[in-house]
Fold each of these.
Amino acid sequence: LQLQESGPGLVKPSETMSLTCTVSGGSISSSSKYWGWVRQPPGKGLEWIGSVSYSGSAYLSPSLKSRVTMSVDTSKNQFSLKVSSATAADTAVYYCARAGKEELRSEFDYWGQGTLVTVSS
Amino acid sequence: QSALIQPPSASGTPGQRVTISCSGSSSNIGSNFVYWYQQLPGMAPKLLIHTNTLRPSGVPDRFSASKSATSASLAISGLRSEDEADYYCATWDDSLSKVFGGGTKLTVL
């Protein structure tokens, strides 16, 4: 299984950041596992953004849920992240990942390589 | 401030055994499984331990973990230079959120 993030590397402040994770080597809808996003600001630790099921049910970090949207496109074997009203604090490497078990609390066992998104004018 | 507290740094010499602690609360570690990730420089995190103590296929048995009440720890025995990385503990918090520790930078002297 492989995951690959894609999207603009530069976003202007107040705009919406959009990222897509393309899954290969397996189908998003082949099981009830969750698909998630984790970010890491430069030089800092990991932060969970949220997770989405293959059916599109999203569970979001309480600290970000007012600005975050997640969705799934099973026809393209992709899932997506949108973060609105971006600020410099959203500058980070964004990782997509797959849960290892069919439950929201599960660990992430497969990760994408990550993509750096910089919020700057 | 992370929900899970880890020491910012740890170190050891080759062959030594080192441990990294992770302290939480009853709403996270106390009632959920703990996971550990290894992040080599410039790389994505890699799952090291799941379900408190279990190693995924391919992870050397030099890596072990334990959990007690609201704390957990990762042990690395027979330390090797390639173990130099950042290590993160993680779990689920009953406030409906995945939480990570702040990370521990392991230096092999």
Amino acid sequence: NAGVTQTPKFQVLKTGQSMTLQCAQDMNHNSMYWYRQDPGMGLRLIYYSASEGTTDKGEVPNGYNVSRLNKREFSLRLESAAPSQTSVYFCASRTQRGAHEQYFGPGTRLTVT
Amino acid sequence: AQSVTQLDSHVSVSEGTPVLLRCNYSSSYSPSLFWYVQHPNKGLQLLLKYTSAATLVKGINGFEAEFKKSETSFHLTKPSAHMSDAAEYFCVVSDPDYGGSQGNLIFGKGTKLSVKP
């Protein structure tokens, strides 16, 4: 099982450039999430999508946009990258049953210079 | 509001000795609680989860955690550390009714576990 996949694995951008991070899951989950991870901060929620066709802001949404393309795919877009967006980005999807645990992708390491 | 506090940012143990990673939470509801592990330059892997079925939860790789409501704690333990346990560990709470954000997770800041030979 592939689980949650993310592309690219690494990216370097110049300030002001744009890019889209891609995420896909093959577990038929309704809910998907984007987080950023910074040293000493744990993971912070950027945006989430409770179901296909819906998206909502999380804790740190400024500077980002998202698209829930279909049930499998959830993309994160940086329209004008800033050095403060240098981080590791994780996508996750959530089970509908039981404890509702989330399953994470391998991450995208983004550096903005 | 719910929150998670991991009491130690860094824990160092010798191989073969017990591991204790401490976590306290606050939640207005009956939470689901998780421990995730992150090895260097990897994604997060679910170690174990608590959903009110049993207060002592067993996870993968010999880890377990005990939910203590009176102490609002969910500490992670392992009887004997292995070199491969060196990683960062995150205590996480899911508050089903938080702000309408069903199932959203609140992460602790992490505890880095070092294992000495």
Amino acid sequence: AQTVTQSQPEMSVQEAETVTLSCTYDTSESDYYLFWYKQPPSRQMILVIRQEAYKQQNATENRFSVNFQKAAKSFSLKISDSQLGDAAMYFCAYRSAWGNSNSGYALNFGKGTSLLVTP
Amino acid sequence: DGGITQSPKYLFRKEGQNVTLSCEQNLNHDAMYWYRQDPGQGLRLIYYSQIVNDFQKGDIAEGYSVSREKKESFPLTVTSAQKNPTAFYLCASSGLGQRPSSSGANVLTFGAGSRLTVL
């Protein structure tokens, strides 16, 4: 089974600064998808950004961008110009492109990184 | 508006009782999922279903049961056999297909969650 590791349980950033959250994963597959989800205090899961493994270009969504290193199996999230509303738990997740017998098309999540944004 | 509705938001259970968490979606998604969230543990897959009247165990299915009698509904029953049921439960749904599209198709959409506490 694929494992997703987020090695930073907590991170802190000042407003307007940039922060990078780390994620590594273990897989033998060549075609897959990676995601970052945000969970604010309301606990609603919100998709932040997705990356297709077959694309070399890093995904970007406004202030959010990723650094996808396929050979290193690394998928970090960079948040630029941090805002107070960015404070949340951030989860990295993996999905097989073709689904698998253990979990279909379900996502496999890391344990999360809690991001604190200070004024 | 399309979305996923989970109920109740908060639920209290006495030891030895079964309880059922409701999950309804009007997104016309084929697949539905139940995850459990504990502090520091990320999200762990309990059950998933890709078609009506069929469902598969996830990583932590022991002590839980589900049904999928309608495409829109995927209730989760926490049985008395679940030794430590106090947790936050998240229901999700998605289309089926290889490629998560930019429109959001085949990307997991989550409900607001249900918090279960055993007294």
